[in-house]
């Protein structure tokens, strides 16, 4: 009699393993079909809706973000399985520092825990050979999170298969201002150099002014390590950029599925990619014209 | 059994395996119970109910929008997309499409101001549009000239300030002098402002702001450490406006892209992508956009 529950549990476990295998197989079939068409090179995600999800389910405040993290891991797995090389996520904005201090602190603690977990052997980083970048004004973070982020960046610097860019303490306008500042400093450094080098100051200064080209601002941006995103997906149905990748998404496809971030699934990713493939030939024609 | 029947059977089996794979994700194990299927059907059909209700409430929408006047967008930006598609659908030439678009533009501007918007920005011609066929580009430039001339009395009567932003180096002399005339004649008006972007590119805007800041730093007018977001805003081409950042950005024809329009300025704008083509975007569609805008919860990164 006591054997029955144990037997039932084993049978249940066996069935769920079988279901997972079938799901994995059908997912790989779907990906095979998708890769017949053009695939995006770079996907960006705005992970919106964690707090609303927790409220909807009547959970406590912090668990929305935890559910959001496991949704993120699944999405990363799907993206890398499909063969998308660059994935960028909007983890924490500079505007978010203006939230309640308790919420900011709990978010920082969660991020510290998850960043440290990326270094573990079973983590997704080692499974897919991910190189991780942390993009943003890292000086605004507390010392522990910054140190952990730098540790992860150094530890994964040799990986080259796929890239994950985590935007933390990030604002696109802040990124542009930092790039502009850098370009100005470089330009004025050139001016000073020009002065001491030769006496023909006027000509040198003219040349230096012309040198602040688009290329320089782009090179000085932190996001220059990756190409421009092809698709930007923002969950929870809001259609706003919220100061994320403004410079880089000028020609990106914007998608706003209505699902909250912890509810996002494979079908939203597949739908976004199908839409991208629909517009691809037209966009390629326009890019060639440029 | 004959071959087509076997094929159909195999296809059905494949679909039976593949479709659940899309819906069963790792975390949410939704079991195939009756209650879940009923729930799924209810959610799928509720979308159609909303649309029917909206059509019935058509006339009362305008009144509802007017009641919420305090939630009006101060600055509305529009990407005028779909003129060529509109012309193709009707078997007309591209120039007819653009003419219809221009007519629609003037009508919509009147509606916008009537609803309480202060500034309207229009993406009339982008830097990338120079690559279009030469006769289309010439037709567009001619359209700009004709409409500036014909609508001048209207702008002066209604006291609308006109500004043209963009890179002026490639525009013809006649159009440039016309633009100068219109801007000079309307520069003292306040309260209503139309910003027309001709040969504009968001990246070029940011680049020219950077160059002018670099020059100021070199001339000693500002310190490099003082370069911040406010300093950038004062150098961008939208500095001519009291409200440089659009609250609502509309792109018609269903394409969901910003296409290098206001990159910096649309950081917190609500983006609205109706499927209607620009020459068909009338008062009813604009009212829909406003109702949609008024329902948005704008948090700017904080909690409400």
UniProtKB/TrEMBL annotation, chain A:
The Enzyme Commission number assigned here is 2.5.1.-
GO CC terms: cytoplasm
Q: Look up the record and name the cofactor or cofactors this protein needs.
A: Mg(2+)
Q: Name one GO molecular function term.
A: transferase activity
Ranges annotated as spanning the membrane = none
Q: Which SUPFAM superfamilies match?
A: Undecaprenyl diphosphate synthase
Q: Which PROSITE patterns match?
A: UPP_SYNTHASE (PS01066)
Q: What pathway does this protein act in?
A: Protein modification; protein glycosylation
- Judged by the first EC level, this protein's enzyme class is transferase
InterPro entries found in the cross-reference section: UPP_synth-like, UPP_synth-like_CS, UPP_synth-like_sf
Q: Which controlled-vocabulary keywords does the entry list?
A: Transferase
Question: What is the stated purpose of this protein?
Answer: Catalyzes cis-prenyl chain elongation to produce the polyprenyl backbone of dolichol, a glycosyl carrier-lipid required for the biosynthesis of several classes of glycoprotein.
NCBIfam families linked to this entry: uppS (TIGR00055)
Q: What is the name attached to this protein's record?
A: Alkyl transferase
Q: Which organism is it from?
A: Cardamine amara subsp. amara
From TrEMBL, chain B:
GO molecular function annotation? transferase activity
EC number(s) for this protein?
A: 2.5.1.-
Q: Which GO terms describe its cellular component?
A: cytoplasm
- Give, as one word, the top-level EC class: transferase
Q: Does the keyword Membrane apply?
A: yes
Which Pfam families does the UniProt record give?
Prenyltransf
Q: Which InterPro entries match?
A: UPP_synth-like (IPR001441), UPP_synth-like_CS (IPR018520), UPP_synth-like_sf (IPR036424)
Q: In which pathway does it act?
A: Protein modification; protein glycosylation
Q: Which residues form a coiled coil?
A: none
Which cofactors are required for activity? Answer: Mg(2+)
Keyword tags = Membrane, Transferase, Transmembrane, Transmembrane helix
Q: Where are the bilayer-spanning segments?
A: 6-24
Extent of the signal sequence: none
Statement: the UniProt record of this protein carries the keyword Transferase: yes
Main function: Catalyzes cis-prenyl chain elongation to produce the polyprenyl backbone of dolichol, a glycosyl carrier-lipid required for the biosynthesis of several classes of glycoprotein.
Record's family?
Belongs to the UPP synthase family.
Q: What is this protein called?
A: Alkyl transferase
Gene source species: Cardamine amara subsp. amara
């Amino acid at each position: 009699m006591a054997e029955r529950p144990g037997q039932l549990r084993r049978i249940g476990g066996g069935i769920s393993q079988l279901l997972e295998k079938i799901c994995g197989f059908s997912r790989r079939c779907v990906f095979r079909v998708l890769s017949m068409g053009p695939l995006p090179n770079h996907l960006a995600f705005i992970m919106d809706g964690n707090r609303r999800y927790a409220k909807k389910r009547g959970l406590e405040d912090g668990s929305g973000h935890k559910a959001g993290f496991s949704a993120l891991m699944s999405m990363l797995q799907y993206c890398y399985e499909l063969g998308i090389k660059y994935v960028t996520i909007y983890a924490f904005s500079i505007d978010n520092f203006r939230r309640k201090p308790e919420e900011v602190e709990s978010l920082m603690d969660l991020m510290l825990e998850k960043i440290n977990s990326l270094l573990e052997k079973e983590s997704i980083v080692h499974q897919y050979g991910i190189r991780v970048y942390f993009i943003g004004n890292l000086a605004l973070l507390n010392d522990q999170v910054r140190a952990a982020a730098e540790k992860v960046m150094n530890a994964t610097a040799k990986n080259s298969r796929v890239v994950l860019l985590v935007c933390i303490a990030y604002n696109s306008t802040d990124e542009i201002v930092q790039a502009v500042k850098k370009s100005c400093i470089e330009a004025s450094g050139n001016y000073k150099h020009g002065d001491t080098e030769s006496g023909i100051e006027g000509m040198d200064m003219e040349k230096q002014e012309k040198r602040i080209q688009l290329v320089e601002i782009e090179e000085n941006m932190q996001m220059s390590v990756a190409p421009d995103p092809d698709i930007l997906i923002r969950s929870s149905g809001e259609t706003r950029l919220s100061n994320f990748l403004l410079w880089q998404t000028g020609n990106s496809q914007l998608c706003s599925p209505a699902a909250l971030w912890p509810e996002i699934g494979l079908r939203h990713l597949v739908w976004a990619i199908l839409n991208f493939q629909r517009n691809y030939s037209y966009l390629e024609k326009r890019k060639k014209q440029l | 059994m004959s071959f087509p029947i076997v094929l159909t059977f195999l296809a059905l089996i494949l679909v039976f395996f593949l479709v659940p794979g899309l819906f069963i994700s790792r975390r949410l194990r939704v079991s195939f119970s009756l209650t879940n299927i009923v729930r799924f059907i209810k959610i799928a059909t509720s979308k159609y109910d909303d649309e029917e209700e909206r059509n019935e409430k058509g006339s009362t929408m305008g009144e509802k929008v007017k009641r919420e006047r305090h939630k009006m967008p101060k600055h509305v930006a529009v990407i005028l997309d779909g003129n060529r598609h509109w012309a193709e659908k009707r078997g007309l030439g591209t120039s007819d499409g653009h003419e219809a678009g221009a007519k629609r533009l003037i009508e919509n501007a009147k509606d916008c101001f009537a609803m309480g918007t202060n500034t309207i920005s229009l993406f009339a011609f982008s830097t990338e549009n120079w690559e279009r066929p030469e006769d289309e580009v010439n037709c567009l430039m001619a359209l700009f000239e004709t409409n500036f001339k014909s609508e001048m009395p209207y702008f002066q009567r209604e006291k609308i300030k006109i500004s043209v932003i963009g890179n002026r180096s490639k525009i013809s002399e006649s159009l440039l002098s016309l633009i100068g005339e219109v801007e000079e004649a309307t520069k003292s008006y306040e309260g209503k402002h139309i910003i027309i972007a001709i040969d504009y590119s968001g990246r070029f805007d940011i680049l020219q702001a950077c160059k002018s800041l670099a020059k100021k730093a070199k001339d000693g007018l500002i310190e490099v450490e003082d370069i911040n977001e406010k300093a950038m805003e004062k150098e961008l081409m939208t500095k001519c406006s009291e409200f440089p950042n659009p609250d609502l950005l509309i792109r018609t024809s269903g394409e969901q892209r910003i296409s290098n329009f206001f990159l910096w300025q649309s950081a917190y704008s609500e983006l609205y992508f109706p499927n209607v083509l620009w020459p068909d975007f009338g008062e009813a569609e604009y009212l829909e956009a406003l109702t949609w805008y008024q329902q948005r919860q704008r948090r700017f990164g904080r909690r409400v």
